[in-house]
Design goal:
Layout: H1 7-25, E1 47-49, E2 55-57, E3 66-71, H2 76-92, E4 98-103, H3 109-119, E5 125-127, H4 132-136, E6 144-148, E7 154-159, H5 164-171
Length: 176
């Protein structure tokens, strides 16, 4: 078979080339990964039922500064700084401050209720059972505290413990 080109060979190579091209382009055909949230972005909308059965939503709290705290009961920082956040809430709730603790999906209602009772938390606490809110806010580690301005912009996202100085620096201008 010298000098002759086998048409089956050309057809097979052509088909193989088309398949390779399709496979190379395939990853670009799927949905784009979610864009990372940044400071200044609009905060994702949320709607979640708290431990008392009340619906809490971003739309209800529009026009107010908001602290969202993603946490779990095994988090040492969460236990250590919850009294600080509780006192800050008590001092500024009459000026419009909203706080929502969101327990991550790995938690149980019993453990969350025990944590809330132990620390005498006076603001709403919710259990993110389906993980939707945790995913929407792109929380991968706890504690993560998201600060939201009255116009629903992300002011800051802090990983780890939070002190009164940080709370005042980030939210003080909205609570005069």
């Amino acid at each position: 078979m010298t000098g002759k080109i086998d048409k089956r060979h050309i057809g097979g190579c052509f088909l193989l080339g088309i398949i390779c091209l399709a496979l190379a382009l395939l990853p670009g055909c799927g949905p784009e990964p979610p864009r990372r949230l940044k400071i200044g972005d609009d905060a994702p909308d949320f709607s979640i039922v708290d431990l008392q059965g009340n619906l809490r939503s971003s739309l209800q709290w529009q026009g107010f500064p908001v602290i969202l705290r993603f946490w779990d009961t095994e988090c040492a920082y969460c236990r250590a700084d919850s009294p600080i956040i509780n006192r800050y809430f008590d001092a500024y709730r009459d000026r419009g401050l909203k706080v929502l603790y969101v327990a991550t999906p790995n938690e149980t209602a019993d453990r969350v209720n025990s944590f809330v009772a132990d620390l005498d938390i006076g603001f709403p606490v919710a259990l993110d059972e389906d993980g939707r809110m945790t995913a929407d806010y792109q929380v991968n580690m706890v504690p993560q505290t998201i600060f939201i301005s009255p116009d629903r912009k992300i002011i800051s996202a802090m990983l780890g413990g939070v002190g009164e100085a940080e709370l005042q620096e980030l939210l003080g201008r909205y609570l005069k």
